[in-house]
């Protein structure tokens, strides 16, 4: 006699893990969040021909390095996921640690850049450009900070052996969030620093 | 006690969501592309291209980088198409929203 399933499978009827769908829906809402900010930036800039040339105010080479650092952190994050997918515990821990360190480095360099800019007179209220710059990069930085904390929590759980080959959805969804933060930065760097 | 079908289903579908194990994408290869595109983007700024060409090439390069991260690092290419729809459908609203607000800016008065 076949028994009815007492507990619904976390894969539901769609065949996708609930937590994964949850994270993707959350990321979709985050797309709209950043749309509001980036859309406002585009509209304000479009209607203001005297907009300063970003490369004359912002440190483009340093931020290009920071972009590279964040991209590297995405590589280490996906490698951490690949490791636990393949059952490699040491690879998981090593790459989560690297992701945490690279993410922290990104924040450190951002903080340094903020202090330099404020020192040179660009603040959130000094000009329209300043307002836009600090609001956009500031909200992104807050997302990175949240991500760094999540990666740290994931790392601590991994160190306790909390993720195994058969069950590592937590690593995957933290990874999705982290890649999204990188993705937003790829767009922000281009739109705010280069165009 | 899990039902027989439940166990079979769970063993087929890993937390990765794929029906069968597949080789990992070439993460380092994608990283190289991301690096090259970043360098090209920064280089384009210093080439003093005509403005429309600069803006369009930068946007194309940024979108390609974003697509690479989404497709390979976030595994959208290997997941069920539903996840791609969930993630990309807001982008339609993003474009509509920005374009409509753009009509409020001074050049359109």
Describe this structure in words.
The complex is a heterodimer of chains A (195) and B (109). Chain A has 195 residues and is mostly helical. Chain A has a single domain (18-194), classed as Cytochrome c oxidase, subunit III, four-helix bundle (Four Helix Bundle (Hemerythrin (Met), subunit A)), CATH 1.20.120. Chain A contains six helices and no strands. The model of chain A has no long low-confidence stretch (mean pLDDT 94). Chain B has one domain. Helices cover 68% and strands 0% of the residues of chain B. Chain B has helices at 4-12, 27-46, 51-73, 81-102. The longest helix of chain B has 23 residues, at 51-73. Chain B is flat. Chains A and B meet through helix 1, helix 3 and helix 6 of A and helix 1, helix 2, helix 3 and helix 4 of B.
Query: Based on the structure given, which CATH architecture of chain A is correct?
Result: Up-down Bundle
Count the E strands of chain A. Answer: 0
Low-confidence stretches of chain B: 1-20
What is the string of SSEs of chain A from the N terminus onward? HHHHHH
Outline of chain A: elongated
Give the SSE layout:
The complex is a heterodimer of chains A (195) and B (109).
Chain A: H1 18-46, H2 54-57, H3 60-85, H4 89-119, H5 128-159, H6 169-194
Helix pairs in contact in A: 1-6, 3-4, 3-6, 4-5, 5-6
Chain B: H1 4-12, H2 27-46, H3 51-73, H4 81-102
């Amino acid at each position: 006699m076949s028994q009815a399933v007492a507990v619904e499978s976390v894969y539901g009827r769609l065949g996708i893990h609930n937590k994964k769908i949850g994270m993707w829906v959350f990321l979709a809402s985050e797309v709209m969040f950043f749309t509001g900010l980036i859309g406002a930036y585009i509209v304000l800039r479009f209607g203001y021909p005297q907009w300063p040339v970003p490369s004359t105010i912002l440190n483009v080479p340093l931020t290009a390095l920071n972009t590279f650092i964040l991209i590297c952190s995405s590589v280490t994050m996906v490698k951490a996921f690949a490791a636990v997918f393949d059952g490699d515990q040491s690879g998981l821990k090593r790459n989560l640690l690297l992701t945490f360190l690279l993410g922290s480095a990104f924040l450190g360099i951002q903080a340094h850049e903020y202090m330099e800019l404020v020192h040179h007179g660009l603040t959130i209220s000094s000009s329209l450009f300043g307002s836009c710059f600090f609001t956009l990069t500031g909200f992104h930085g807050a997302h990175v900070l949240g991500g760094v904390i999540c990666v740290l929590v994931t790392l601590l759980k991994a160190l306790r052996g909390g993720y195994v080959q058969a069950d590592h959805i937590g690593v995957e969804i933290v990874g999705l969030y982290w890649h999204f933060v990188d993705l937003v930065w790829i767009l922000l760097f281009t739109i705010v620093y280069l165009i | 006690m899990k039902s027989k079908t439940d166990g079979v289903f769970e063993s087929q579908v890993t937390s990765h969501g794929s029906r069968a194990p597949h080789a990992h994408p070439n993460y380092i290869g994608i990283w190289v592309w991301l690096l090259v595109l970043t360098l090209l983007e920064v280089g384009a700024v210093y080439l003093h291209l005509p403005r429309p060409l600069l803006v369009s090439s930068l946007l194309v390069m940024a979108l390609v980088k974003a697509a690479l991260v989404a497709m390979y690092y976030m595994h959208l290419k290997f997941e069920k198409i539903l996840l791609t729809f969930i993630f990309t459908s807001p982008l339609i609203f993003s474009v509509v929203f920005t374009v409509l607000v753009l009509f409020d800016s001074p050049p359109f008065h």
